[in-house]
Design brief:
This protein is mainly α. The chain has one domain. The longest helix is centred in the C-terminal third of the chain and has 35 residues.
């Protein structure tokens, strides 16, 4: 697997986990564990995932470059 594909897989999995946890907690805090919680959470998670993934893909190269300059 190429480095670019590895990064895409890594970002996809990381964003999947992060958005699911954050949207779960946000939905829980705002609506409680009431009837319809799962549907509200999945809706929030879907919006978060499709928003965060492209942002992460776009900014990842800039962050990688910034970090490598600061370390060296």
């Amino acid at each position: 697997m190429t480095s670019k594909k590895q990064m895409l897989v890594f970002l996809s999995i990381m964003i999947l986990i992060m958005t699911s946890v954050v949207s779960f907690v946000g939905t829980w805090i705002n609506f409680g564990l009431d009837t319809g919680f799962i549907l509200q959470w999945l809706k929030a998670w879907g919006v978060a995932y499709v928003t965060a993934l492209p942002v992460a893909i776009i900014i990842a190269p800039f962050i990688r470059s910034f970090v490598s300059k600061k370390i060296h």
